[in-house]
Write a structure and sequence with these properties.
Blueprint: E1 4-8, E2 13-16, E3 19-22, E4 28-32, E5 39-41, H1 54-67, H2 72-86, H3 93-107, H4 111-119, H5 122-133
Antiparallel strand pairs: 1-4, 2-3, 2-5
Helix pairs in contact: 1-2, 1-4, 2-3, 3-4
Amino acid sequence: MSGLVLKLAPNERVLINGAVIENGDRRSKIAIRTPNANVLRLKDAIHPDRANTPVGRACYIAQLILSGDARPDEGKRQLLLAIAQLSQVFDDATGQAALQDARASVEDGAIYPALRRLRELLPQEDQLIHARRQ
């Protein structure tokens, strides 16, 4: 099987080129044969109300690109800018590695892997925000 293969849990939803597809009652696999299709697992989606932190906004930009709601060139530009800004805050090895991977993925046009790496920073960002408030 070539192309992107999605393994879906029962009743899992995925957005593919603007269409929401819901899996049935059993696990299944589907193959996306169209190159550069916009694919977003809805369980990974961030509600616009939660995009109120720097990492959340970066994730939301990636999500807009994947959903087809942002022009890819403009979305990538904004996402690279957000990653550059985050690299000034996340100065630990783990954070820097995640941001470098995300940057490389965006530059390669692989937005979903960039989104996954950025989402890894959400708990760390939450800790930073809570520590600052104390």
